[in-house]
Amino acid sequence: MNPNDDVISLTRALLRFNTINPPGDESLCMAFLADYLQELGFSTHLQRFGERRFNLVARLAGGKADAKPLMFTGHVDTVPLGNADWRFDAFAGEISDGRLYGRGASDMKAAIAAFIVACRQQREAVQSGPGVVLALTGGEETGCDGARSMIDLPPDVLPAPGALIVGEPTANYPVIGHKGALWLRCETRGKTAHGAMPELGINAIYLAAEAIGKIRHFDPGAPHPLMKRPTLNVGTISGGLNINSVPDRTRFDVDIRTAPNLRHDDIRQRLAVMMGGAVRVTTLVDLPAVLSEPDHEWIRRVFGHCAPLHDAPLQPRVVPYFTDASLLLGSLGAPPCIILGPGEPAMAHQTDEYCEVEKLRQAVTLYGALIRDWGTHGAA
Questions:
Q1: Which one from 26, 140, 168, 187 is the annotated catalytic residue?
Q2: What's the pLDDT tens digit per position in 172-189?
Q3: What domains lie within the chain, and their CATH numbers?
Q4: pTM above 0.90?
Q5: Catalytic residue (choose from 26, 77, 145, 168)
Q6: Catalytic: 324?
Q7: What is the C-alpha separation between 355 and 188, in angstroms, rounded?
Protein backbone atom coordinates (compact mmCIF):
# COMPACT_ATOMS: atom_id res chain seq x y z
CA MET A 1 0.00 0.00 0.00
CA ASN A 2 1.29 3.44 -0.90
CA PRO A 3 2.14 5.27 2.37
CA ASN A 4 0.59 8.41 0.93
CA ASP A 5 -2.81 6.83 0.24
CA ASP A 6 -4.16 8.35 3.47
CA VAL A 7 -4.18 11.64 1.60
CA ILE A 8 -6.73 10.23 -0.84
CA SER A 9 -9.08 9.32 1.99
CA LEU A 10 -8.76 12.76 3.55
CA THR A 11 -9.23 14.54 0.23
CA ARG A 12 -12.37 12.53 -0.47
CA ALA A 13 -13.69 13.38 2.98
CA LEU A 14 -13.19 17.09 2.30
CA LEU A 15 -14.82 16.86 -1.13
CA ARG A 16 -18.00 15.47 0.43
CA PHE A 17 -18.63 18.79 2.15
CA ASN A 18 -20.59 21.24 0.00
CA THR A 19 -18.66 24.48 0.53
CA ILE A 20 -19.82 26.27 -2.61
CA ASN A 21 -19.41 30.05 -2.40
CA PRO A 22 -21.70 31.84 -2.93
CA PRO A 23 -23.65 31.39 -0.75
CA GLY A 24 -20.74 30.14 1.37
CA ASP A 25 -20.88 27.67 4.24
CA GLU A 26 -17.63 26.31 5.67
CA SER A 27 -19.04 25.36 9.07
CA LEU A 28 -19.21 21.57 8.79
CA CYS A 29 -15.98 21.25 6.84
CA MET A 30 -14.04 23.41 9.29
CA ALA A 31 -15.51 21.59 12.29
CA PHE A 32 -14.38 18.30 10.75
CA LEU A 33 -10.88 19.65 10.16
CA ALA A 34 -10.65 21.09 13.67
CA ASP A 35 -11.49 17.69 15.18
CA TYR A 36 -9.14 15.90 12.79
CA LEU A 37 -6.23 18.21 13.59
CA GLN A 38 -6.85 18.11 17.34
CA GLU A 39 -6.51 14.33 17.19
CA LEU A 40 -3.12 14.87 15.55
CA GLY A 41 -2.02 17.08 18.42
CA PHE A 42 -2.62 20.50 16.86
CA SER A 43 -4.03 23.36 18.90
CA THR A 44 -6.92 24.87 16.94
CA HIS A 45 -8.83 28.13 16.80
CA LEU A 46 -12.08 28.44 14.84
CA GLN A 47 -12.89 32.00 13.82
CA ARG A 48 -16.39 32.92 12.70
CA PHE A 49 -16.62 35.74 10.17
CA GLY A 50 -20.26 35.44 9.13
CA GLU A 51 -23.34 33.23 9.28
CA ARG A 52 -21.94 29.68 8.93
CA ARG A 53 -18.66 31.20 7.70
CA PHE A 54 -15.44 30.06 9.37
CA ASN A 55 -11.66 30.20 9.31
CA LEU A 56 -9.43 27.74 11.16
CA VAL A 57 -5.92 28.29 12.51
CA ALA A 58 -4.12 25.14 13.66
CA ARG A 59 -0.67 25.03 15.21
CA LEU A 60 1.73 22.23 16.00
CA ALA A 61 4.42 23.80 18.14
CA GLY A 62 8.10 23.00 17.75
CA GLY A 63 11.03 22.84 20.10
CA LYS A 64 12.78 25.87 18.63
CA ALA A 65 10.75 28.53 20.38
CA ASP A 66 12.97 31.34 19.14
CA ALA A 67 12.49 30.42 15.46
CA LYS A 68 9.52 31.30 13.28
CA PRO A 69 7.25 28.45 12.16
CA LEU A 70 6.52 27.36 8.61
CA MET A 71 2.98 28.27 7.53
CA PHE A 72 0.71 26.50 5.05
CA THR A 73 -2.47 28.16 3.87
CA GLY A 74 -5.45 27.02 1.85
CA HIS A 75 -9.14 27.74 1.42
CA VAL A 76 -11.99 25.25 1.70
CA ASP A 77 -14.67 27.21 -0.17
CA THR A 78 -15.27 26.42 -3.84
CA VAL A 79 -16.96 28.03 -6.81
CA PRO A 80 -20.44 26.87 -7.98
CA LEU A 81 -20.78 23.82 -10.21
CA GLY A 82 -21.78 25.75 -13.33
CA ASN A 83 -24.59 24.97 -15.76
CA ALA A 84 -23.01 22.03 -17.58
CA ASP A 85 -23.72 18.48 -16.47
CA TRP A 86 -20.98 16.63 -14.57
CA ARG A 87 -20.04 13.09 -15.54
CA PHE A 88 -18.95 12.46 -11.95
CA ASP A 89 -20.68 13.27 -8.68
CA ALA A 90 -19.18 16.62 -7.67
CA PHE A 91 -19.24 15.65 -3.97
CA ALA A 92 -18.27 11.97 -4.03
CA GLY A 93 -14.54 12.04 -4.68
CA GLU A 94 -14.72 9.37 -7.38
CA ILE A 95 -11.49 8.06 -8.86
CA SER A 96 -11.24 7.17 -12.56
CA ASP A 97 -8.15 6.64 -14.70
CA GLY A 98 -5.85 8.04 -12.04
CA ARG A 99 -7.90 11.18 -11.47
CA LEU A 100 -9.74 12.18 -8.31
CA TYR A 101 -12.90 14.07 -9.27
CA GLY A 102 -14.93 16.63 -7.34
CA ARG A 103 -15.59 20.32 -6.90
CA GLY A 104 -12.51 21.60 -5.10
CA ALA A 105 -10.29 18.65 -6.02
CA SER A 106 -7.70 20.91 -7.64
CA ASP A 107 -8.83 24.22 -6.16
CA MET A 108 -7.83 23.32 -3.50
CA LYS A 109 -8.92 20.66 -1.03
CA ALA A 110 -6.33 18.16 -2.28
CA ALA A 111 -3.53 20.49 -1.20
CA ILE A 112 -5.05 20.94 2.26
CA ALA A 113 -5.21 17.18 2.68
CA ALA A 114 -1.64 16.84 1.40
CA PHE A 115 -0.04 19.27 3.82
CA ILE A 116 -2.03 17.91 6.77
CA VAL A 117 -0.88 14.35 6.01
CA ALA A 118 2.68 15.62 5.47
CA CYS A 119 2.60 17.27 8.92
CA ARG A 120 1.41 14.02 10.47
CA GLN A 121 4.13 12.02 8.74
CA GLN A 122 6.80 14.56 9.71
CA ARG A 123 5.55 15.09 13.24
CA GLU A 124 8.99 14.44 14.76
CA ALA A 125 10.66 16.96 12.44
CA VAL A 126 7.93 19.51 13.17
CA GLN A 127 8.22 19.18 16.93
CA SER A 128 12.01 19.27 16.94
CA GLY A 129 12.04 22.34 14.67
CA PRO A 130 10.20 25.69 14.68
CA GLY A 131 6.77 24.09 14.25
CA VAL A 132 4.05 24.61 11.66
CA VAL A 133 0.92 26.74 11.42
CA LEU A 134 -2.03 25.93 9.15
CA ALA A 135 -4.10 28.98 8.14
CA LEU A 136 -7.28 27.56 6.61
CA THR A 137 -9.74 30.08 5.26
CA GLY A 138 -13.23 30.42 3.93
CA GLY A 139 -14.51 32.98 1.49
CA GLU A 140 -11.43 33.11 -0.72
CA GLU A 141 -13.32 32.71 -3.98
CA THR A 142 -15.30 35.93 -3.49
CA GLY A 143 -12.35 38.17 -2.68
CA CYS A 144 -10.49 36.70 0.31
CA ASP A 145 -13.28 37.46 2.78
CA GLY A 146 -12.01 34.95 5.31
CA ALA A 147 -8.40 36.07 5.13
CA ARG A 148 -9.55 39.66 5.63
CA SER A 149 -10.98 38.60 8.99
CA MET A 150 -8.11 36.27 9.83
CA ILE A 151 -5.48 39.01 9.74
CA ASP A 152 -7.20 40.63 12.74
CA LEU A 153 -6.37 37.64 14.95
CA PRO A 154 -3.76 38.29 17.69
CA PRO A 155 -0.19 36.98 17.27
CA ASP A 156 -0.68 34.26 19.90
CA VAL A 157 -3.35 32.75 17.60
CA LEU A 158 -1.86 33.64 14.21
CA PRO A 159 1.90 33.97 14.66
CA ALA A 160 4.14 35.53 12.03
CA PRO A 161 5.75 32.71 10.05
CA GLY A 162 9.22 32.54 8.60
CA ALA A 163 7.86 31.41 5.24
CA LEU A 164 4.44 30.83 3.65
CA ILE A 165 3.35 28.00 1.34
CA VAL A 166 0.06 28.56 -0.51
CA GLY A 167 -1.42 25.27 -1.73
CA GLU A 168 -3.21 26.64 -4.82
CA PRO A 169 -3.11 24.45 -7.95
CA THR A 170 0.29 24.52 -9.70
CA ALA A 171 0.76 20.81 -10.59
CA ASN A 172 3.58 20.81 -7.99
CA TYR A 173 5.48 23.52 -9.87
CA PRO A 174 6.88 26.24 -7.57
CA VAL A 175 5.35 29.64 -8.35
CA ILE A 176 6.82 32.81 -6.85
CA GLY A 177 3.90 35.19 -7.24
CA HIS A 178 0.59 36.18 -8.71
CA LYS A 179 -1.15 39.22 -10.11
CA GLY A 180 -3.09 41.67 -8.01
CA ALA A 181 -6.84 42.13 -8.37
CA LEU A 182 -8.83 45.35 -8.50
CA TRP A 183 -12.59 44.79 -8.78
CA LEU A 184 -14.65 47.89 -9.44
CA ARG A 185 -18.40 48.46 -9.51
CA CYS A 186 -19.46 51.13 -12.00
CA GLU A 187 -22.93 52.62 -11.81
CA THR A 188 -24.81 54.98 -14.09
CA ARG A 189 -27.97 56.80 -13.09
CA GLY A 190 -30.51 58.26 -15.48
CA LYS A 191 -34.14 59.29 -15.37
CA THR A 192 -37.06 56.93 -15.82
CA ALA A 193 -39.88 57.55 -18.29
CA HIS A 194 -42.45 55.58 -20.26
CA GLY A 195 -40.88 53.40 -22.94
CA ALA A 196 -43.14 54.98 -25.52
CA MET A 197 -41.77 58.42 -24.65
CA PRO A 198 -38.03 57.83 -24.16
CA GLU A 199 -37.25 61.47 -24.96
CA LEU A 200 -38.60 62.34 -21.51
CA GLY A 201 -36.05 60.20 -19.72
CA ILE A 202 -32.30 59.53 -19.55
CA ASN A 203 -31.40 55.92 -20.38
CA ALA A 204 -28.88 54.58 -17.85
CA ILE A 205 -28.16 51.56 -20.05
CA TYR A 206 -27.03 53.85 -22.88
CA LEU A 207 -24.76 55.68 -20.42
CA ALA A 208 -23.26 52.37 -19.30
CA ALA A 209 -22.81 51.18 -22.89
CA GLU A 210 -20.94 54.38 -23.75
CA ALA A 211 -18.67 53.92 -20.73
CA ILE A 212 -17.98 50.27 -21.55
CA GLY A 213 -17.13 51.25 -25.11
CA LYS A 214 -14.52 53.63 -23.77
CA ILE A 215 -12.86 51.25 -21.33
CA ARG A 216 -12.42 48.55 -23.96
CA HIS A 217 -9.47 50.68 -25.04
CA PHE A 218 -8.25 51.51 -21.52
CA ASP A 219 -4.64 50.60 -20.74
CA PRO A 220 -4.18 49.84 -17.01
CA GLY A 221 -0.42 50.35 -17.24
CA ALA A 222 2.98 49.17 -18.39
CA PRO A 223 3.80 45.45 -18.61
CA HIS A 224 5.78 43.69 -15.91
CA PRO A 225 8.87 41.61 -16.82
CA LEU A 226 7.37 38.45 -15.33
CA MET A 227 3.62 39.14 -15.09
CA LYS A 228 3.38 40.69 -18.57
CA ARG A 229 0.49 43.03 -19.36
CA PRO A 230 -2.30 43.83 -16.92
CA THR A 231 -5.78 42.76 -18.01
CA LEU A 232 -9.28 44.24 -17.80
CA ASN A 233 -12.61 42.45 -18.14
CA VAL A 234 -16.22 43.58 -17.71
CA GLY A 235 -17.70 40.56 -15.95
CA THR A 236 -21.31 41.51 -15.13
CA ILE A 237 -23.89 44.07 -16.16
CA SER A 238 -27.46 44.69 -14.98
CA GLY A 239 -29.97 47.43 -15.60
CA GLY A 240 -33.62 48.13 -16.16
CA LEU A 241 -36.75 46.75 -14.50
CA ASN A 242 -39.14 46.25 -17.42
CA ILE A 243 -39.09 46.53 -21.19
CA ASN A 244 -41.50 49.43 -21.47
CA SER A 245 -39.69 51.86 -19.18
CA VAL A 246 -36.55 53.94 -19.61
CA PRO A 247 -34.03 52.45 -17.13
CA ASP A 248 -32.78 54.90 -14.54
CA ARG A 249 -29.98 52.76 -13.11
CA THR A 250 -27.38 50.37 -14.54
CA ARG A 251 -24.29 48.83 -13.03
CA PHE A 252 -21.42 46.81 -14.38
CA ASP A 253 -18.43 45.24 -12.66
CA VAL A 254 -14.84 45.45 -13.90
CA ASP A 255 -12.09 42.95 -13.07
CA ILE A 256 -8.55 44.32 -13.47
CA ARG A 257 -5.49 42.12 -12.85
CA THR A 258 -2.30 43.99 -12.10
CA ALA A 259 1.40 43.66 -11.30
CA PRO A 260 3.67 45.10 -8.57
CA ASN A 261 4.73 47.99 -10.81
CA LEU A 262 1.18 49.41 -10.90
CA ARG A 263 -0.72 51.43 -8.28
CA HIS A 264 -4.38 50.57 -7.90
CA ASP A 265 -5.36 54.10 -6.84
CA ASP A 266 -3.85 55.46 -10.03
CA ILE A 267 -5.62 52.88 -12.20
CA ARG A 268 -8.98 53.59 -10.63
CA GLN A 269 -8.60 57.34 -10.98
CA ARG A 270 -7.58 57.17 -14.64
CA LEU A 271 -10.41 54.77 -15.44
CA ALA A 272 -12.98 57.02 -13.75
CA VAL A 273 -11.74 60.04 -15.70
CA MET A 274 -11.94 58.13 -18.98
CA MET A 275 -15.53 57.00 -18.36
CA GLY A 276 -16.65 60.49 -17.39
CA GLY A 277 -18.78 62.04 -14.69
CA ALA A 278 -21.88 60.00 -15.53
CA VAL A 279 -20.29 56.90 -13.96
CA ARG A 280 -19.93 56.37 -10.22
CA VAL A 281 -17.06 54.00 -9.30
CA THR A 282 -16.71 52.05 -6.07
CA THR A 283 -14.12 49.44 -5.11
CA LEU A 284 -15.27 45.89 -4.39
CA VAL A 285 -11.91 44.12 -4.01
CA ASP A 286 -8.41 45.58 -3.78
CA LEU A 287 -5.73 42.88 -3.50
CA PRO A 288 -2.06 43.61 -4.17
CA ALA A 289 0.15 41.46 -6.36
CA VAL A 290 2.47 38.95 -4.71
CA LEU A 291 6.06 38.41 -5.81
CA SER A 292 8.89 36.72 -3.92
CA GLU A 293 12.55 37.21 -4.72
CA PRO A 294 13.66 34.19 -6.78
CA ASP A 295 17.19 34.39 -5.36
CA HIS A 296 16.00 34.14 -1.75
CA GLU A 297 17.78 31.21 -0.11
CA TRP A 298 14.58 29.44 0.96
CA ILE A 299 12.93 29.94 -2.44
CA ARG A 300 15.98 28.40 -4.11
CA ARG A 301 15.79 25.40 -1.77
CA VAL A 302 12.10 24.93 -2.59
CA PHE A 303 13.00 24.93 -6.29
CA GLY A 304 15.63 22.31 -5.56
CA HIS A 305 13.08 20.00 -3.91
CA CYS A 306 10.61 20.48 -6.76
CA ALA A 307 13.07 20.03 -9.62
CA PRO A 308 13.06 16.19 -9.71
CA LEU A 309 9.29 16.23 -10.34
CA HIS A 310 9.63 18.10 -13.65
CA ASP A 311 11.36 17.29 -16.92
CA ALA A 312 12.69 20.75 -17.82
CA PRO A 313 14.76 23.09 -15.62
CA LEU A 314 12.53 25.20 -13.38
CA GLN A 315 12.05 28.87 -14.19
CA PRO A 316 10.53 31.70 -12.12
CA ARG A 317 6.80 31.67 -12.80
CA VAL A 318 3.72 33.59 -11.71
CA VAL A 319 0.00 32.87 -12.04
CA PRO A 320 -2.81 35.27 -13.03
CA TYR A 321 -5.25 34.30 -10.27
CA PHE A 322 -5.08 35.82 -6.76
CA THR A 323 -4.65 34.01 -3.44
CA ASP A 324 -5.08 34.73 0.26
CA ALA A 325 -1.38 35.61 0.31
CA SER A 326 -2.39 39.06 -0.95
CA LEU A 327 -3.74 39.84 2.51
CA LEU A 328 -1.80 37.46 4.72
CA LEU A 329 1.69 38.54 3.70
CA GLY A 330 1.26 42.19 4.63
CA SER A 331 -0.08 41.36 8.07
CA LEU A 332 2.50 38.67 8.82
CA GLY A 333 5.70 40.59 8.20
CA ALA A 334 6.08 39.87 4.46
CA PRO A 335 7.81 36.46 4.69
CA PRO A 336 9.02 34.69 1.53
CA CYS A 337 6.08 32.98 -0.17
CA ILE A 338 5.73 30.14 -2.62
CA ILE A 339 2.55 28.98 -4.36
CA LEU A 340 2.72 25.20 -4.63
CA GLY A 341 -0.03 22.62 -4.84
CA PRO A 342 -0.89 19.30 -6.52
CA GLY A 343 -3.98 20.55 -8.34
CA GLU A 344 -4.15 21.12 -12.08
CA PRO A 345 -4.26 24.86 -12.83
CA ALA A 346 -6.43 24.31 -15.91
CA MET A 347 -8.99 22.39 -13.81
CA ALA A 348 -9.79 25.22 -11.41
CA HIS A 349 -13.47 26.20 -11.71
CA GLN A 350 -14.04 23.63 -14.49
CA THR A 351 -16.79 21.06 -14.96
CA ASP A 352 -15.57 17.60 -13.84
CA GLU A 353 -12.74 19.19 -11.87
CA TYR A 354 -10.08 16.67 -10.91
CA CYS A 355 -6.64 16.27 -9.34
CA GLU A 356 -4.16 13.70 -10.58
CA VAL A 357 -3.78 11.03 -7.90
CA GLU A 358 -0.05 10.72 -8.55
CA LYS A 359 0.49 14.45 -8.12
CA LEU A 360 -1.49 14.33 -4.89
CA ARG A 361 0.80 11.62 -3.55
CA GLN A 362 3.84 13.54 -4.77
CA ALA A 363 2.65 16.61 -2.89
CA VAL A 364 2.69 14.76 0.43
CA THR A 365 6.29 13.75 -0.14
CA LEU A 366 7.20 17.24 -1.37
CA TYR A 367 5.56 19.04 1.54
CA GLY A 368 7.23 16.60 3.90
CA ALA A 369 10.63 17.43 2.42
CA LEU A 370 9.95 21.14 2.86
CA ILE A 371 8.94 20.62 6.49
CA ARG A 372 12.19 18.76 7.20
CA ASP A 373 14.16 21.40 5.29
CA TRP A 374 12.60 24.19 7.35
CA GLY A 375 13.35 22.37 10.57
CA THR A 376 17.00 22.11 9.57
CA HIS A 377 17.72 25.35 7.77
CA GLY A 378 14.84 27.77 8.36
CA ALA A 379 14.81 30.79 6.08
CA ALA A 380 18.57 31.20 5.90
A1: 140
A2: 999 999 999 999 999 999
A3: 6-178+289-377 (3.40.630.10), 186-287 (3.30.70.360)
A4: yes
A5: 77
A6: no
A7: 43
